[in-house]
Amino acid sequence: MVNLIIDNKEVQVPKGTTIIEAAKKIHIKIPSLCHHPDQTVKGNCRICLVENDWGKLVAACSTKVSEGMKIKTNTKFVRDTQKGVLELILANHNQDCLKCDRNGNCELQDLCERFNISNNSLDENIVEAHEIDDFNCSIVRDYSKCIKCGRCADVCREVQNVDVLAATNRGAEYEFIPRFDRKLHETECVFCGQCIKVCPVGAIYEKSSIDQVLTAIDDEALHVIVQIAPAVRVSVGELFNLEPGSITEGQIVSSLKRIGFERVFDTNFSADLTIIEEGYELIDRITNGGKLPMITSCSPGWINYVEGHGEDLLGHLSTCKSPQQMFGAISKTYYAEKLGIHPSKIFTVSIMPCTAKKFEANREEMNSYGFPDVDAVLTTRELGRLIKSQGIDFANVEEEAFDAPFGIASGAGAIFGASGGVMEAALRSVYEILTKQELEKLEFEEVRGMQGIKEATVNINGNDIKVAVVHGLGNAKKVMEEIREGKSDYTFVEIMGCTGGCIGGGGQPIEKTKETKQKRMNALYTIDSNKEHRSSHKNPTIIKLYEEFLGEPNGHKAHVLLHTTYKGRKL
Ligand code: SF4
Ligand code: SF4
Ligand code: SF4
Ligand code: FES
């Protein structure tokens, strides 16, 4: 351990700790912008300068503590220096806070408040003219807001292994942009949105579909319905000052009804449908010598990644559409038929924890008999904005239940939102379908939790089935290499593009603490354990859907509507 003094207070921390982390231990928050607790040290912004024993300025985020060190974080010299750095950043920053996506949740704005800087106190604002990159359907990059911290490039390279962003130019001219000065859609970007989650300011955000949805609601010729993904209900409350992991299904349904959606349905229902199709596809591959391991296909960030980086592995992907798209397909066919509404008059909205879902919904192959499965996708953050824009007191609104017929879902559908959830849901159904016996214990603890790669072996009818669960594309790359080299003995692999699965998706509220994702995950398991039906094949609405409309699982009609194909996407 190392002993040091920060602002006249003794502190003891492990060797290798940085000054910024040591100060945090005694509740001193040194200003920072490029520093992120989950990332490597970058030292780009210089706002964290503090004074050492010799009156010299050192960067608190990159300087490690040493025995007997004395640090001052709050002298006039330090305050003036930090404020000067902040003013330099602001001088080249487009300060249109009122129009900004991050207004009220911006690290730069927080620092302005701390240093008592208002827009008016700045003599000169010399924002360089920058194009806004909004040429794709998921993510917008506004370079006039970028403070050149480098966090986006770090997460894209170190966590997602996509590595499309890099620092260009030298000295004060450097900036973080897609390599070779391309637009995002011209790169291998998978639209996972993880760069949005680490950006301290409003320089990256989702492309909003709120206006499109409100226009559809106002159109009396349209029947506007909405589905809500599993992970949204345990995170949107954070945007209304509720604790992470607060379960707000009832408040979401009630709010959406007030906004004007005709029916509010549950994506957990179509997650059950995905499990039936995926489960039967797995059984078919095992019994008829199909390509193994089979890999899940419900995470569009992962699909974009494998199309761009693993064309040779496309045959391993399940052909199932994701729950979002399966819901859309059923809404434009079975549901349209039942209500006697032409599919062109049904406008299907999804509320998703994911920016890549916008890209997925826009794929030309994602249609049912010529009608797009899903018409518009809102992220969890957009849902929060939509509810606020309507003046709804979300935390206190009376709760309402999902509508029939797609409001009934099993607990297995709920856990889809957590890494390991699809695998656990599939194992519950595949085991019981193949053995014709009830599982004594429905929980598969080995595939739960935040470990990057999890493994389990399940004995089904005397055969050991080895499975793996992977989240984050950097981890996916490791498993892809094992499969390529023939070293993998897995039968089934779940891969989610984002860390933690959908609970950590790029469209989720920006996590304020490290524990946030775990709390959201725990809430999904609570929903599961409180459900009457906990396995997808026992969901009565799913049983009825096959009886009345789809016929056999994995049958012809199901294949036409609920399955898809993939293609290489090398740029
Ligand atoms: S990034 Fe922050 S400081 Fe800049 S305009 Fe947006 S809210 Fe204001
Ligand atoms: S969306 Fe994902 S892949 Fe694209 S730049 Fe951001 S982190 Fe990289
Ligand atoms: S876009 Fe955001 S995360 Fe990336 S360098 Fe700019 S401010 Fe930092
Ligand atoms: S936070 Fe230390 S240099 Fe940016």
Strand order within the widest sheet? Answer: 12-11-14-17
Estimated structural class: alpha/beta
Ranges where pLDDT stays below 50 over 5 or more residues in a row are none
How would you sum up the major sheet? 4 strands, parallel
Q: Strand tally, please? A: 20
List bound small molecules. Answer: iron/sulfur cluster, FE2/S2 (inorganic) cluster
Helix count, DSSP H or I runs of 4 or more residues: 19
Rg = 25 Å
Mean pLDDT: 95
The percent of residues in helical segments reads 25-40%
Protein described:
- It is built from 19 helices and 20 strands.
- It is α/β, with parallel strands linked by helices and 571 residues long.
- The protein has a four-stranded parallel β-sheet with strand order 12-11-14-17, sandwiched between helices. A four-stranded mixed β-sheet has the order 13-20-19-18, with helices on both faces. A three-stranded mixed β-sheet has the order 2-1-5, with helices on one face.
- The longest helix is centred in the middle third of the chain and has 22 residues.
- It starts with a strand and ends in a 9-residue tail after the last helix.
- The model has no long low-confidence stretch (mean pLDDT 95).
